Amino acid sequence: MTADIKVSGVNIKMKIETFLFWSFFVFTTISFAQEQTNKNASTDSTAKHIFCYTNPITRDTSIAMRDHCIIKVGKMWYCTGTSLPVWTGPNPGVKLLVSDDLIHWKFHSWLIDASELPPDCPYNGRFWAPEIHYIQNKYWLTVNSGKVTEDDPKGMKTHSIWLFSSDEVTGPYKLVNGPLTPQYNNDATLFEDEDGKTYLYCSGNGLFRAEIDLSTGKLIGSIQKFLDKKSPGNPDWVVGGIEGPFVVKREGTYFMFFSSWTRGYEVGLLKSKSPLGPWEFASREPIFGTRKKGYRPELAIEGGYADLKFYDSEDPYCETGHNALFEGPDGKLWSSCHYIMYDKRPYPYCPDLQPWEKTPQLGIEPVHYKDGMFYINKPTWTEQCVEY
């Protein structure tokens, strides 16, 4: 009996030792394999990433804006735009938002705080469509505004373009010059060409262009209008108005994105072989946007295009426009603009708008380039994922 117990004890001990040995071996092998996998993933340039988003990106009344313009600096994205209120009078200034993932945005600061401007400030009206561009190792802020007076509480009689600069994207920004043009102009944007020359584009009852000396903020030559909403040969969807130019260059061709509010809010595309034109339609149809026949009918009646024939687009928006381009998570071009929910949207969309849905919110979409043409898919409202 004693011998059997002793032998059995030896067997049990051997089994335990064997089990521990193989357990350690398996654990070590798995750990080594996982370490190699992680190492390979960190060094393999072909490793895949997935970026998922759902428009509208922001859903917060406190950071609601129109005319969003995003710039990426390092690993952060910064966004500015037209602060609310937009139509009723002067607004509180130029707001800056920040995000480290392009999804979660928060208020950073006021680049221009209207409450801190002196009473005689010539640009204390409605701050519309500000943009930030990084050119010649500085950040340049274009702001569209005018002076509020007793007989002009919105400052629209002197509404034009003002140029500011800073060494940091977050400011402080110092006034360089303004107003840059002698007449009403709005929606200013900047473009630096490969030869170092910089150009100013803007709207204001049409689209305008001029070369600009950034160091002084003065135009080289006069501002020239090159496209009117009723220019001969225009497609009918621009007759209501054109605004919001934004210029990029690809393969020797200059492309100008712009918006029209004729049928809701749609984005068009022009092209040219010179930054000063002549410009022509790269597409006779919009490359992006939403169309809603019942949206703002009073503008259609006033503009004389109420009988324009078109079908509503299949999305829950009444506006997806005034776009600007920026570097997205995949290092490629993306488009940003304001998305506004349509209060007459049909089933299956809920017709009762939540508070944030009554204000303009940020929306983004990837931009595609193929065979000498830019494309943007239709506005989305469900989860989208991009692999890169």
What does this structure look like?
The protein is mostly beta strands and 388 residues long. It has 2 domains: 1-47; 50-387, 5 Propeller (Tachylectin-2, Chain A), CATH 2.115.10. Helix content is 13%, strand content 42%. The strands form 6 sheets. Strands 14, 15, 16, 17 and 18 form a 5-stranded antiparallel sheet that branches. It has a 4-stranded antiparallel sheet with strand order 2-3-4-5, with no helix packed on it. A hairpin with a 2-residue loop joins β14 (243-250) and β15 (253-260). It is globular, with a radius of gyration of 28 Å. It starts with a helix and ends with a strand. Residues 1-10, 25-30 and 37-43 have low confidence and may be disordered.
Note the main attributes of this structure:
Tachylectin-2, Chain A; globular; 2 domains; 13% helix; five-stranded antiparallel beta sheet; four-stranded antiparallel beta sheet
Order of helices and strands: HEEEEEEEEEEEEEEEEEEHEEEEE
**CA-based gyration radius:** 28 Å
Number of domains: 2
Helix fraction bin: 10-25%
The tally of helices reads 2
Instruction: Say how many strands there are.
Output: 23
Strand content: 35-45%
Q: Quickly give the CATH architecture of the largest domain.
A: 5 Propeller
Assembly of the depicted chains: single chain
CATH class of the largest domain: Mainly Beta
The CATH topology of the largest domain turns out to be Tachylectin-2, Chain A
> What is the terminal-to-terminal distance?
70 Å
CATH homology group of the largest domain: Glycosyl hydrolase domain, family 43
Structural class: mainly beta
What overall form do the CA principal axes indicate?
globular
Mean pLDDT: 90
Q: Give unreliable regions as ranges.
A: 1-10, 25-30, 37-43
How many strands, which pairing sense, and closed or not: the largest β-sheet? 5 strands, antiparallel
